[in-house]
Amino acid sequence: MHRQFINKKQINVIICVFLGLVLVGCAADPLNRDKKSKAYYSAYKKRSTASKPNSGYHRVKTGETLYSIAFKYGLDYKKVASLNSIPVPYVIYPNQKIRLSSSVKKVTSSTSQKTKRTSTNVAKTTTKKQPSKSIKNVKKTVKTKSSNVKKASGKPLKWVWPINGVTLKGFSNKGVSSKGIDIRGRVNDKVLSAADGIVVYAGNGLIGYGNLVIVKHNEEYLSAYAHNQKILVKEKQTVKAGQQLAIIGSKGKERSLLHFEVRKDGQPIDPLTVLPKTRK
């Protein structure tokens, strides 16, 4: 009897030690994720508007667009274009230095300064020779262009839900929290454009966003669709509200999930403030 009691006690001790080791392992990794999944989640947590480099410049990488760079730093693409004297359609090149702040001095070479001086002298000479009638015509042309821009930007947007699903995570603008919303969908769901616009980025160059599509809707609004399984559109492609952009992907072990963001003048806003209350 005495020996049997000792054996049971030893067994109980072994069981307790085993359970303790299991609990320690769970505390270290509560979701028991593999290394690849851990790396993905650490990148996902970093997904937010990035801080500007100390130099105040961004060096363009292959595949980036002016829109994706502005999106990355939470800036208005129009202001970034203006700072760098980049005209529409905002063409940029690999290794180009993009100024991100007006406080950073614009680097100008001596050759460019000479060119400016020459061009100003030519302009002065030309202006003197031009008759007054041609100047009036130029003024009329400028007015016509500006009025067209106002009409285009003033057109109200009709928003639709990018997918029909439950909102799992809401918007937060604090710290490194979500700058958009997470919506659960179904396997192989098509991700739809939330409004009419033009695709200004389609790629996977932004850390924490996976396969990302950015659509420009007008001079104020951009929308972003992240973690797609497959992108179905190309940059510079015109899309309509409800048109297919991508196939829904996943976020780590979260299957069939879309991360959706809306930016107004470069700043993240709660998508629920523009999306319709009812989902079709």
State the assembly state of the protein chains. Answer: single chain
Q: Which bin fits the share of residues in helices?
A: 25-40%
CATH architecture of one domain: Distorted Sandwich
Major pleated sheet? 9 strands, antiparallel
Tally the helices: 6
CATH C-level class of one domain is Mainly Beta
Note the run of SSEs as H and E: HHEHHEHHEEEEEEEEEEEE
Q: Which class do the helix and strand fractions yield? A: alpha+beta
Full CATH superfamily name of one domain = Glucose Permease (Domain IIA)
Q: Evaluate the radius of gyration.
A: 27 Å
Regions with little confidence, pLDDT below 50 for 5+ residues: 22-47, 108-153
Could you say which overall geometry the principal axes of the C-alpha atoms support?
globular
**How many beta-strand segments?**
14
The CATH topology of one domain corresponds to Glucose Permease (Domain IIA)
Report the portion of residues in β strands.
15-25%
**End-to-end separation:** 73 Å
What is the mean pLDDT?
Answer: 75
Write a short abstract of this structure.
The chain has 280 residues and is an alpha+beta fold. It is built from six helices and 14 strands. The protein has helices spanning 2-28, 35-45, 66-73, 77-83, 110-129, 132-154; strands spanning 57-59, 97-99, 167-169, 181-184, 190-192, 197-203, 211-216, 221-228, 230-231, 238-239, 244-247, 249-251, 254-264, 267-269.
Features:
alpha+beta, Glucose Permease (Domain IIA), nine-stranded antiparallel beta sheet, 6 helices, three-stranded antiparallel beta sheet, about 20% strand, about 280 residues, globular
